[in-house]
Design goal:
The chain is α+β, with helices and mostly antiparallel strands. Helices cover 47% and strands 19% of the residues. It has three domains: 2-147, Beta-Lactamase, CATH 3.30.450; 192-292, Helix Hairpins (Orthogonal Bundle); 295-317 and 329-447, Histidine kinase-like ATPase, C-terminal domain (Heat Shock Protein 90, 2-Layer Sandwich). It has helices spanning 2-51, 143-191, 209-258, 265-289, 301-311, 345-362, 418-428; strands spanning 57-58, 66-72, 77-81, 101-108, 117-127, 133-141, 297-300, 330-336, 340-343, 366-374, 377-384, 432-435, 441-447. Strands 1-3-2-6-5-4 form a six-stranded mixed beta sheet. The protein has a five-stranded mixed beta sheet with strand order 8-10-11-13-12. The protein has a two-stranded antiparallel sheet with strand order 7-9. A hairpin with a 2-residue loop joins strand 10 and strand 11. Helix 1 (2-51) packs antiparallel against helix 2 (143-191).
């Protein structure tokens, strides 16, 4: 409705302006034509006056659309057309000094009609054969101009309303057709619920803004459905992971209540620590999924690596290997060049801790951390001399709650969230984290360099 009213209003203003302009142009043209006709006749009479051949009765075309009159300076009529016989001067103005003629519009009442009629009258100065000055007045009727103007105005009055109705109908129909897909999109989106995210809005065949809107809405629904599926899987996996340590805690508590002497505090503490670690990981993942951005600052990744490795106790995580003896894992740091980045120190330290935990869990004798800075950014690599990650599983290991083999059991391994957390943190910092080819295990973290430092 607003579009239709707006279009009609604009067209109305445009038509009225065009009509006013057209009427003005037509009137100006007709008045100019009448003035030129009168001037031509006045100049012809002036020439006759100067030659001494002026007669009392001046000839004009039949009818009363032309007037002629020759008036002396003292107001006497020397000659006039038949329609001005026995009438005083029709005008009293004269051309200004330096001008040959002057023109004005006058309303004159003629002998056959007492009602005044519009004329365009021209005054031209002339000199008689005797040398006396006279003024020749020639007038042409503007009745034709007025009739033409009235006819055009009546045509517009009767023609504009149907044209406006046509504009309104076309605008209403075209706008309705353009908005019909939008209404279909609105209706479809209104029926989509969180339990029915598989539905999509219709995409019109036209390649216009509405089609792009439909594609954008469908893309948004795809992301929303993916997010909801991911959330459901996350809740289901978290519930499954929490069930075992909570059940173990309950069993220990029940045993402690029934048989206090059989209660093993160490096992109970391990279960509590595992539940706490899992809760911390779930809370961090929830914050990362919510897009929370902690405070960031400029830091040197070399210093962060040195500090993180220095505070880690040796053998913090037991290592199980396929041989008959257990081996300890040594951690060394190699650094080349400056490694200036912009990020959150705590979260990046968490990434390194998770990578080191994973490497220590699978290494035989050594874990090496290297930091290298270049034009493309900063590269941090954590390598171990373990079996490495099969090529088919190098992406799957970053899925939450993923464990590849029996060596990554719940007793010897982590929660299955460490690598997923590390990749989410890397992505939040504008970087990437991936597993590379061997020998051994290799994880590469790439971060953009801080250009402000």
């Amino acid at each position: 409705m607003r579009t239709t009213l707006g279009a009609v209003a604009i067209v109305t203003v445009a038509l009225l302006a065009a009509c006013a302009g057209l009427l003005g142009v037509i009137r100006h043209g007709l008045v100019g034509s009448a003035e030129r006709t009168a001037l031509t006749r006045a100049e012809a009479v002036a020439a006759v006056t100067g030659s001494g051949r002026l007669v009392d009765r001046l000839a004009v075309p039949e009818g009363e659309d032309s007037l002629l009159q020759v008036v002396t300076d003292d107001g006497r009529i020397l000659a006039a057309s038949h329609n001005l016989a026995a009438r005083g001067p029709v005008a009293s103005f004269e051309p200004a000094d330096g001008h040959e003629a002057a023109a004005r519009g006058l309303d004159l009442a003629l002998r056959s009609d007492p009602q005044p009629h519009p004329f365009r009258i021209v005054a031209v100065r002339a000199t008689t054969a005797e040398g006396s000055g006279v003024t020749v007045y020639a007038a042409t009727s503007l009745e034709t101009a007025r009739y033409t103007q009235d006819l055009l105005l009546r045509s517009m009055v009767w023609g504009i309303p149907p044209l406006l109705l046509l504009v309104a109908a076309v605008t209403w129909r075209s706008t309705g057709r353009a908005l019909r897909p939008v209404e279909a999109i609105r209706a479809e989106v209104a029926e989509i619920t969180e339990r029915d995210l598989g539905r999509r809005v219709p995409v019109p065949a036209s390649r216009d803004e509405v089609a792009r809107l439909s594609l954008t809405v469908n893309s948004t629904l795809d992301r929303l459905e993916e997010s909801m599926d991911r959330q459901r899987r996350f809740v289901a996996d978290a519930s499954h992971e929490l069930r075992n340590p909570i059940a173990a805690l309950r069993a220990h508590v029940e045993v402690g209540i029934a048989h206090p002497r059989l209660l093993h505090g160490g096992e109970l503490l391990d279960d509590v620590i595992r539940v706490q670690q899992l809760a911390d990981d779930l809370l961090l993942l929830a914050r990362l999924d919510a897009g929370q951005s902690p405070e960031r600052s400029a830091l040197d990744l070399r210093d962060l690596v040195r500090d993180t490795v220095a505070r880690r106790p040796e053998g913090r995580v037991p290592v199980s290997v396929s041989v008959s003896v257990s081996v300890s894992v040594s951690v060394s740091v190699e650094s080349t060049g400056p490694a200036l980045i912009h990020g959150n120190r705590g979260q990046l330290a968490r990434v390194l801790d998770n990578l080191l935990d994973n490497a220590q869990r699978h290494a035989r004798e050594a874990v090496v951390v290297t930091v290298d800075a270049g034009p493309a950014g900063v590269l941090l690599e954590v390598r171990d001399d373990g079996a490495g990650v099969p090529e088919a599983d190098r992406e799957r290991i970053f899925t939450r709650f993923t464990r590849l083999d029996a060596s990554r059991s719940r007793d010897a391994g982590g929660t299955g969230l460490g690598l997923a957390i590390a990749r989410d943190i890397a992505t939040a910092h504008g970087g990437t984290l991936g597993a590379g080819p061997g020998p051994g295990g290799r994880f590469a973290l790439r971060l953009p360099a801080d250009s402000s430092m």
